[in-house]
């Protein structure tokens, strides 16, 4: 979706403000929000692409008005409500009003290290020969799906070059909406600064994105 | 996205704090989460998984040419040799800075970051200014961090838009010949592995 989360190159940014000796979390609620979000994926049964879409799928003013972990919380709440794991009246009341649903598995303290170590590899076996090879000129399609996508707006319609072939990976656009992994070839595509930003070209700038094959078409 | 998290530090129990507490108790009572697992998750990222891991990887690459070659060829198993692996680091690519090339890593769409080697991302990495500016004006970003690259240095910005996680191998500072891996790792800053900073100079560590 075209949303406020897609920030590459937007003009309303100010200076980057590094914080010296920044702590990992800035408040106790951030610790808990982080951990609840990680722990709920197992009983909740959603995948990382569904989580990302739940976070980004909100009005721009809401997204921009929230801090990072507030967005995480809002996304988590959305996923919980959609699956009726928690009901809206419970969120409003702040306590349980309905019995819990049966869930396949919950994350125990003993399982945490193994779960984190396992992670969620997205590489899959090849499904078809790759359409592109290193060095090929490609154009990022000018598409605007209303659903989740990982093709940022600032490269759409622009011509780049295949920098690397990264193998076949789970396709977020499909995985986010529950229609399956639909694995696709993944490429690193490089674009020159002059191609992306003709108004402010830096001749020494190159930008790469990781783009799935359906995002790309051959360019001359 | 705002960076107003500091506001919450001052109120005794902010609305958000109360909401999170209520949510945690609802999810616990319904049998979906084990609060002890939450404690382990938090402890892991506050005390075990952080940029010291990445610093050890860099120091190893600076001292062991065969390791450096493995790291640049296929970073995930190379990093695994030091015991770092897993969530948000399933597919890591290491990119090397040279006198001619500065690499910088960003995630313009959210906050993708190589957790096993760098831990959780800092607020600025997730902020609108960084996500907006890094791909268009990375030299301006570097100025925000207080340093300037020669105009002749090429900058390559890696936007982490899929599940590949990028990790910058900074240049080894001069004047560190003969240093041990352990001592070298003290020079490696988090920002130098994101590409927004440089390693410390030999005089900056005891």
3D architecture notes:
The complex is a heterodimer of chains A (220) and B (206). Helices cover 31% and strands 17% of the residues of chain A. With 220 residues, chain A is of the alpha+beta class. Chain A has two domains: 91 residues, Orthogonal Bundle (Cyclin A, domain 1), CATH 1.10.472.20; 96 residues, SH3 type barrels (Roll). In chain A, strands 1, 2, 3, 4, 5 and 6 form a six-stranded antiparallel β-sheet that branches. Chain B is of the alpha/beta class and 206 residues long. In chain B, helix 4 crosses helix 5. The N and C termini of chain B lie far apart (39 Å). Chain B has twelve helices and four strands, in the order ααααααββααααββαα. Chain B has a two-stranded parallel ribbon with strand order 1-4. Chain B is globular. Helices cover 46% and strands 12% of the residues of chain B. About 2% of the residues of chain B have low confidence. Chain B folds into two domains: 43 residues, no CATH class; 156 residues, Nitrile Hydratase, Chain A (Alpha-Beta Complex).
